[in-house]
Design goal:
The protein is α+β, with helices and mostly antiparallel strands. The chain is built from six helices and 18 strands. The strands form six sheets. The chain has a four-stranded mixed beta sheet with strand order 4-1-6-5, with helices on one face. A four-stranded mixed beta sheet has the order 13-11-15-14, sandwiched between helices. Strands 3-2-7 form a three-stranded antiparallel beta sheet. β17 and β18 form a beta hairpin. The longest helix is centred in the middle third of the chain and has 18 residues.
Length: 320
């Protein structure tokens, strides 16, 4: 029984991958930022959070095509392995003039699974920062207009000097299992039929992650869980969350109770049932229909690979 209570993620969640140096020291080194601008690269993100991609990589343009210094609305993303700086701006997508390869326009939800590590990191960071700037142009304290600072990693009230930083909303996501070969999957009321996933919810003020796991699962499906154990985390910039993954032990003999109105149905599924569902493909977030292969009559459709939920489910399902 105990050998199945502890397991780890087999892979780094797609949006947690690292391929570039965040180079945070350069955010306050104006001289170094300006010195790197002539050779820097630029990531364009449109108002629907879409980017240009080609061959599994985000398309980067020369930064100096928009001016001889970073514009005020540019955000500094870091430094590539070859030393070049990378910045991002909100605006219309434009393919570089010297690029002959075909490009596609996709957002992070639909392209995350095909991105390389560097592209995943750059686009996830740019999406989170630019979304924050879109909604943080006025001080939360006195409503005064603020301006970007530190390469887009903060905003300053020019009247008072008060500095604000990007907001992140932590949320737990947890696989409840029985310690053997059954796990709970649930369907939210707003999801289509057959689409199931593991349970999640936002952390409340004054609450630890472990306490949040117990509270959210009790609220959503009425189960009392024990042995809450950490698995991993993933940024989720839609618009500003951090998903913190856990697994916990539940009792299949305890009845479900849908107490907060968010869950339409839940059930205990065997490891074999979940493995068969994984073989059918997944639900691609943001699309109008599931992408499945094989027998589409499967009882389950599971979340897409961009979500840490998928990695948690696959890691548990892979246990012997």
């Amino acid at each position: 029984m105990t050998e199945h209570r502890t397991f780890g993620l087999r892979n780094v969640p797609l949006l947690s991958r690292v391929g570039a140096d965040r180079a945070d020291a350069l955010r306050t080194d104006i001289d170094a930022a300006l010195a790197g601008w002539p050779d820097a690269l630029l990531l364009r993100v449109d108002h629907r959070n879409q980017v240009l991609i080609a061959n599994g990589q985000v398309v980067l343009d020369r930064a100096d095509t928009i001016g001889d210094r970073p514009p005020e609305n540019a955000v500094f993303l870091g430094r590539l392995k070859d030393g070049r700086h990378v910045w991002a701006v909100r605006g219309d997508l434009q393919a570089p003039e010297d690029r002959d390869l075909g490009t596609d326009v996709l957002d992070l939800r639909r392209a995350g699974q095909i991105f390389d590590d560097t592209s995943a990191q750059l686009v996830a960071t740019a999406t989170a920062l630019l979304n924050w700037h879109d909604n943080a142009r006025f001080s939360a304290i006195d409503g005064a207009p603020t301006r970007p600072a530190k390469g887009g990693w903060s905003r300053i009230n020019p009247l008072t000097g008060h500095e604000e930083f990007p907001r992140i909303d932590p949320a737990i996501i947890c696989l409840v299992h029985d310690g053997h070969d059954r796990a709970v999957l649930a369907r939210q009321t707003v999801w289509p039929e057959r689409l199931f996933s593991i349970l999640a919810g936002f952390v409340e003020a004054g609450e630890s992650f472990e306490t949040c796991v117990r509270r959210e699962i009790a609220e959503e499906v009425g189960l009392d869980v024990t042995d809450v154990q950490y698995l991993g985390s993933q940024p989720w910039p839609f618009p500003r969350s951090l998903m913190v993954g856990f697994h916990a032990i539940g009792d299949p003999g305890q009845p479900f109770s849908f107490n907060d109105g968010e869950i339409a149905e839940a059930a205990w599924f065997t490891r074999d049932e979940i493995r068969r569902a994984l073989d059918q493909g997944d639900w691609s977030s943001g699309l109008s229909a599931p992408h499945v292969r094989g027998d589409s009559s499967s009882r389950l459709l599971l979340p897409g690979s961009i979500s840490i939920a998928r990695e948690i489910i696959e890691s548990w399902a892979a246990l012997d």
